[in-house]
Amino acid sequence: MSGPDGLRLDALTVGYRTGRRRVAEVLTGLAAAAARGELTVLLGPNGAGKSTLLRTVAGLHPPLAGTVTLDGADLPRMPAARRARRLAVVLTERVDAGLLSARELIELGRHPHTGSGGTLRRGDHAAVGAAIAAARAGHLAGRRVAELSDGERQRVLTARALAQQPSVLLLDEPGAFLDATSRVELLGLLRRLAREQNLCVLLSTHDLELALRLADHVWLVDRHRRLRTGAPEQLVADGAVSAVFDTAELSFDPRSGGFALLGSATGTAHVHGPRATTPLLARALSRHGWTVVTDGPADVDVTAIGSGFLARADGRTTRLPGWSDLAGWARDRHTRRPAEGWPLRRAAPSDVADCLRAAASIGAYFAVESGWDDADPAGWRPLDELYRDGGKTLAGVVETVGQRLGTDELRVAVSVLQLGFAARLASPMLAGLARGVVLDLDPADVAVQSRFGEAPGLRCGSPGGWAGTERLHGAAPADLLGELLVDAHLAPMIAVLRRISPVSERLLWGNAASALAGALRMLETNLGTAATRRVRIVVEQLLERPPLAGTGALAAPGVTPLFRRRSCCLYYRTAVGGHCADCALLPAARRPSRVADPHP
Ligand SMILES: Nc1ncnc2c1ncn2[C@@H]1O[C@H](COP(=O)(O)OP(=O)(O)OP(=O)(O)O)[C@@H](O)[C@H]1O
């Protein structure tokens, strides 16, 4: 405990005399200090004894035992007039101010300084003016107190206490009637006054979140009526705050500084998005029983994009336009979640990061950059925009590709562009699969950047993926890849390109199959066939399903060509005039053994 400056309680017992010989002790053996220049906040549940303690410190009740000192002087024994000049009190009781105006009530605060005549001098008027300004009560000064709202009256009473120019300011629940903004403002004001006027400010409140954010020092009455004191963070870290305020439904969350609702069967969630949104997102999910985790796998995953959300659970992505849709989804998913969780879970962020690192080391076609913070948004085109704008953006890209290839045939440029694009997306996704993660590169969260002469840049705002696919037998990973790669990317890309030039669908799906096979070939070469067995099985399954079925045949690992196409990618019609490794036009013996452009 610090020196004699400020308030100090020693072995203090507070309570009530309920009869000539009977006393009701409320709090006993209290030891605490509240320094000058600091805001000290008294916290505790209902009936803990906060008001009783404040009233005792204020000299309105005698202590039952022990001492209360101010700057070393015994407060209860101090003559009332002197005490009134040193200590100002704002209690919860309503004041009957009759017909007084707010200014007149505030002027009463000067009473301890004016003597029995009560005449205000220039210095008193200055103190009243300063107090009105400090409490921001100027607009209320001319109004009758009886006509003020509870919050307005609170402001005027604070001004009256300040007009008293005390060393100690005691306030019992000063924010009780104030709206949220005014409460923050009032506590901020009291903290500033403590600093500027070297005041000792002690107040009680039930606004735990605000108190812990603004208090310099906390007095906390626990459930056993013991007084714990310390810096707010200290009491949170000790678990003292949780011990007092946690209930079966609510738990104090030290990270957010607020309460989290405890659900009955709590599932876990990942949240992503702009820094300003993720705390709100975490709060919305926790209200519906989800525990937000930053590492490890999770049952669900929500990414904030623009004013909406991508919400994922059980291998499905749902687009939610706003907060109320999110609330409905979070509630519904929580109700439907099986007790043991879904077999498909969101992969741990660290596993996804490992996947992306490992993929990038294979080659440029496998790399996915992540996050938007350090990206220059100008050069990046969101994929869902490319897929939906009817070909407006891609028409220009097709033209540029045609010029670079030395062809004026749109269909050739479209085919080469689409083959490269399919390879660009299939490569990192198949690489993820080799590590047991099905990457989830949602078109709303992924953008592409053209870098002529090299692999186009691919960037995902919040890369994530599905894990747990190994626990599912059969076709689960192929189903997921079918949705996340074929349905979400390859099909819309083909549709939009065919609006630019009506290239045969069979040819374009042949390109997509060829891109999958090309990526598989790179993985088998780099990682070996044992590590890529699962990937091969999934590619085989995908090639057996529409729309890829019938596009060609996959050969055994190491066999050239790995994929025998049934359509031609038209690459031979470019100025380079090359043939690809999967070429349908050449006899097998004349096919190049090395992978040629445009494959990865
Ligand atoms: N005049 C009184 N005589 C006897 N007991 C009282 C008196 N006033 C309050 N008490 C009792 O003292 C205890 C503490 O009450 P107090 O008002 O100090 O608690 P509090 O922490 O301020 O509660 P709240 O947060 O609900 O305002 C309660 O059990 C209350 O019933």
Outline the fold blueprint.
Blueprint: E1 7-17, E2 23-34, E3 38-43, H1 50-57, E4 65-70, E5 73-74, H2 80-86, E6 87-90, H3 102-107, H4 111-114, H5 122-134, H6 150-163, E7 168-172, H7 180-196, E8 200-204, H8 208-214, E9 217-221, E10 227-230, H9 232-237, H10 240-245, E11 250-253, E12 258-261, E13 267-272, H11 278-287, E14 290-292, E15 300-305, E16 308-313, E17 316-320, H12 323-336, E18 345-346, H13 349-360, E19 369-370, E20 381-382, H14 383-388, H15 392-405, H16 410-434, E21 438-440, E22 446-449, E23 457-460, E24 464-467, H17 476-500, H18 505-527, H19 533-543, E25 552-554, E26 563-565
Parallel strand pairs: 3-8, 3-9, 6-7, 7-8, 13-14, 13-15, 19-23
Antiparallel strand pairs: 1-2, 1-4, 4-5, 9-10, 11-12, 15-16, 16-17, 18-24, 20-22, 21-24, 22-23, 25-26
The structure holds adenosine-5'-triphosphate.
Adenosine-5'-triphosphate binds at residues 16, 18, 24, 26, 44, 46-52.
In short:
The chain has 600 residues and is an alpha/beta fold. A 6-stranded mixed sheet has the order 6-7-8-3-9-10, with helices on both faces. Residues 593-600 have low confidence and may be disordered.
Please explain how this structure is put together.
By secondary structure, this protein is α/β, with parallel strands linked by helices. The protein has 3 domains: 239 residues, P-loop containing nucleotide triphosphate hydrolases (Rossmann fold, 3-Layer(aba) Sandwich); 83 residues, Rossmann fold (3-Layer(aba) Sandwich), CATH 3.40.50; 168 residues, no CATH class. Helices cover 38% and strands 20% of the residues. The chain contains 19 helices and 26 strands. The strands form 7 sheets. Strands 6-7-8-3-9-10 form a 6-stranded mixed β-sheet, with helices on both faces. Strands 14-13-15-16-17 form a 5-stranded mixed β-sheet, with helices on one face. It has a 4-stranded antiparallel β-sheet with strand order 2-1-4-5, with helices on one face. The protein is elongated and about 110 Å long. The two termini are 70 Å apart. The C terminus is likely disordered. Bound molecules: adenosine-5'-triphosphate. The site of adenosine-5'-triphosphate has 12 residues, from strand 2 and helix 1. The site of adenosine-5'-triphosphate (ATP) has 12 residues, from strand 2 and helix 1.
